[in-house]
Write a structure and sequence with these properties.
The structure is a single chain. The chain contains 5 helices and no strands. By secondary structure, it is an all-alpha fold. It has a single domain, classed as Four Helix Bundle (Hemerythrin (Met), subunit A), CATH 1.20.120. The two termini are about 30 Å apart.
């Protein structure tokens, strides 16, 4: 599991000459970092003088950011696993017509799955952008730069995830998903 590695190990693995972890996993990591920073801004607001009027909103915001952080953290491995399925499908035998047909179907199924994981990451990253904006506007002004970093990381996560969806969609043949515009 990638999420259980030290950050230096994850970075080394990302830098290695292997396909996993790739851009989708890194997009999810960026989204998780963004959600964590958003949660931090909200938590730095709760209980602070001058922010009593937004305390309940910040508590709720922290809870939503926490849920997104957990979901995006899980997506780090989900994306890597999905692409591992794609690579495994390409390695299936194709010596008979039946094997070739099965291999093609398994490849298409794996690619669809590999497109759906980053699509969910993009959706979650957009939700983090919204939360980060609310945290910046209403939260502790001393943590506004952290909120801005959260929003920028969430934007990066969303764009990177969408790019991964597009790449995967381009490999889908004869399916309604192959014609989806993002």
């Amino acid at each position: 599991m990638l999420v259980n590695r030290k950050i230096t190990e994850y970075l080394a693995k990302a830098a290695a000459g292997t396909a996993v972890p790739g851009g989708g996993s890194v997009a999810a990591l960026n989204g998780a970092l963004a959600a964590g920073l958003t949660e931090m801004v909200a938590n730095l607001t709760v209980g602070k003088k001058g922010y009593e009027a937004v305390e309940e909103d910040m508590k709720a915001l922290a809870g939503m950011a926490s849920q997104l952080r957990n979901k995006l953290t899980a997506a780090i491995d989900q994306d890597a696993d999905a692409y591992t399925e794609v690579m495994a499908a390409y390695k299936l035998p194709k010596t008979t017509d039946e094997e070739t047909s099965l291999r093609k179907q398994k490849i298409q199924d794996a690619i669809k799955h590999a497109a759906l994981v980053p699509l969910e990451v993009a959706r979650d990253a957009l939700a983090v952008i919204d939360l980060a904006g609310r945290a910046i506007r209403k939260g502790n002004k001393n943590a506004a730069s952290d909120g801005a970093v959260a929003a920028m990381n969430a934007r990066t996560a969303a764009l990177a995830a969408i790019y991964n969806v597009k790449i995967n969609l381009s490999s889908i043949k004869n399916d309604a998903l192959s014609h989806v515009e993002i």
